[in-house]
Amino acid sequence: MISNQRRSTPLLWVPLLMIVLALLLQWLKLDSPQTGLLPNFSPWMALAFTGTLVMSRALPWFVWPVAMFAVNLAALGSSAALTAENLTIYGVYALAARSAAQFRGRLGLVQGLLGVVLCSAVFYLVTNTASWAGNAAYAKNLTGWMQALTTGLPGYLPTWTFFRASFFSDLGFSALLMLAFNAEARVRDQATMPLLISAAR
Fold first, then answer.
1. Cβ neighbours of residue 13 under 8 Å, at least 6 residues apart?
2. Which of 1, 108, 137, 181 is deepest in the core (most CB within 10 A)?
3. Are 47 and 64 in contact (CB under 8 A)?
4. In contact, 88 and 130? CB cutoff 8 Å
5. Torsion of Cα atoms, 166 then 172 then 176 then 178, to 10°
6. What pLDDT, in 10s, does the model give residues 19-28?
7. pLDDT exceeds 60 at position 201
8. Over the stretch 140-172, which tens digit does the pLDDT of each residue have?
9. How far is CA 76 from the centre of its chain?
10. What is the rounded distance in angstroms from the CA atom of residue 83 to the CA atom of residue 105?
11. Distances (CA, A) of 118 to 7, 44, 96, 125, 131
12. In whole angstroms, how far apart are CA 181 and each of 49, 95, 102?
């Protein structure tokens, strides 16, 4: 019987390949936005949180946010990538990856999905609050802040639609990563992620 008590995780190649493909997809989207490649689909938070959660401790938690930022820098150049807004975004990804590193071996599949949902919600709240604070078009009051979190500015899609897109892409990619991790772990006779892990463990 495979033990789920083991805290460390092996380096499994299928989840790693999926993460590399996600990085490549994001680079293609940023480098050639006119292609319309999977619009509004961005599994970045899933990569930061779930990617860290399923990867071996041999890979430090900061590998993924650094790789994500490097893709952004390579595709957009320093003038666009090093803005306060972008640095805030990648700071949130780094916090998500750091949090996931603390829970390696302590979360089951359901808990991992709940974790990435929470991270997506925090990301949405932080980035839209930063947009509200930095954009003169928003009134600097509660009404303006609520506008930034819901309808956004006239002439653009409502901001809640971006949360919906990121929510489903993060949830879907996280589920695929964890299923791929478990599938390869079973084949290699390694510890798998159970459905749930009791907090009392």
1. 184
2. 181
3. yes
4. yes
5. 80
6. 988 888 777 7
7. no
8. 999 999 999 999 999 998 999 988 888 999 999
9. 19
10. 35
11. 23, 14, 10, 11, 20
12. 14, 23, 18
Q: Is the separation of the CB atoms in 158 and 152 below 8 Å? A: yes
Amino acid at 140: K
Concatenated DSSP letters for 166-192? HHHHHHHHHHHHHHHHHHHHHHTT---
Number of helices followed by number of strands (H, E) in the chain: 8, 0
Cite the DSSP H helix spans in 55-196: 63-76, 78-81, 84-102, 109-134, 142-149, 159-187
3-state secondary structure 7-43: CCCCCCHHHHHHHHHHHHHHHHHHHCHHHCCCCCCCC
How many Å separate Cα 42 from the centre of its chain? 8
How far is it between the farthest Cα atoms of the chain? 60
Give the tokens for residue 86: 């972008």
User: Can you tell me which residue has the tokens 């495979």?
Assistant: 2
Percent of the chain with pLDDT over 90: 55
CA 11 to mean position of chain CA atoms? 20
How far apart CA 23 and CA 138 sit, in angstroms, is: 33
Q: Is 82 in contact with 60 (CB distance < 8 Å)? A: no
Question: Taken in order 17, 22, 28, 31, is the CA torsion positive or negative?
Answer: negative
